[in-house]
Amino acid sequence: MIRFDAVTKTYADGTRAVGEFSLTIPSHHATVFVGSSGSGKTTLLRMVNRMVEPTSGSVWIDGQDVSTADPVQLRRSIGYVLQQGGLLPHRTVLDNVATVAILNGTPKARARALASEMLERVGLSADLGRRFPAQLSGGQQQRVGVARALVPDPNILLMDEPFGAVDPIVRRELQNELGRLQRELGKTILFVTHDIDEAFRLGDEVVVLRTGGEIAQCGTPADILAHPADDFVRHFIGADAAGGDHEARKLTTRDVDGQRIVFDSTGRPLGVIEP
Ligand SMILES: Nc1ncnc2c1ncn2[C@@H]1O[C@H](COP(=O)(O)OP(=O)(O)OP(=O)(O)O)[C@@H](O)[C@H]1O
Asked: Where do the ABC transporter domain residues begin and end (predicted)?
């Protein structure tokens, strides 16, 4: 469980990125922070592994205040996947994936075996492990980023727009794979995106943020779709006919063969909401 307790963040230049933010994130679920650029999503995510220190307030993981944890240990115990993979360019893919396990004290051979297994698990063949990151496609690099984060078997996985830089088809594939992995592994995932469709597809719980890290609405995708809290949320999820940034669409849900399907205004199915 991750708990944000009245955290705020004002950067050195005076930018108030997060007002006062409190939220409990349940274990073994995927929680998605979604909001437009500058709403404070990344700032909040990075408070969890202390890459950003709150100006006031605290973040707790399973009852421990993270400000009392050793930051290096903390970061090694939490998986972190970034938009631009963050892979080490001069190390092979296999070594990239094995690195954190080695740093955590796993013997090299064992770490490499784990890395190889994890590459397969994220849908990459073992022989890709011998390549260097630049010899992979963007989608493959993101899979490597996910594998690398999972090798130390962290309880928590932080994902900051991990699929933002790949084309829509690959993006959809990666989302599906992550959904599958999550069903298998049951990690506590905190995922940041500005894409509401991605948020609804991946989140058990979705937190819609306004500027300053203010929570506009928090709930399951079905709750938010069925009962948007206000005009801001209605607009953000594209459910208002006025459109704005999003293509105008009215979303509806319908139960089909025991599954809850989301449809757009033209009747096109957008996806299935997991029960
Ligand atoms: N190091 C920094 N110094 C000053 N201001 C910052 C810093 N990092 C972020 N900010 C500002 O804080 C606010 C929140 O930024 P943050 O990156 O958390 O938002 P975000 O919702 O993740 O945005 P994006 O989707 O564009 O990544 C923005 O106004 C941003 O310009």
From this structure: 2-237
What pLDDT is attached to residue 100?
Answer: 83
Atom of ligand 1 nearest to the CA of 9: 12
What is the whole-number distance in angstroms between the Cα of residue 254 and the centre of ligand 1? 37
- Percent pLDDT > 70 in the chain is 93
User: Among candidates 192, 187, 185, which has minimal Cα distance to 26?
Assistant: 187
Residue from 32, 36, 42 to probe ligand 1 pocket by mutation (most atoms less than 8 Å from CB): 42
Q: What is the pLDDT of residue 2?
A: 97
Residue 81 C-alpha to ligand 1 middle, in angstroms? 18
- Among the atoms of ligand 1, which is closest to the Cα of residue 15? 5
Distances (CA, A) of 79 to 33, 40, 48, 203, 216: 17, 20, 11, 18, 27
Q: Tell me the domains of the chain and their CATH numbers.
A: 2-240 (3.40.50.300), 244-274 (no CATH)
Distances (CA, A) of 269 to 83, 242, 255: 28, 21, 12
Question: Residues with beta carbon inside 6 Å of ligand 1?
Answer: 11, 13, 15, 17, 35, 37-43, 194
ipTM of the complex: 0.95
- Give the pLDDT score at 239: 67
* Alpha carbon of 235 to ligand 1 centroid (Å): 22
pLDDT in tens, 3-59: 999 999 999 999 999 999 999 999 999 999 999 889 999 999 999 999 999 999 999
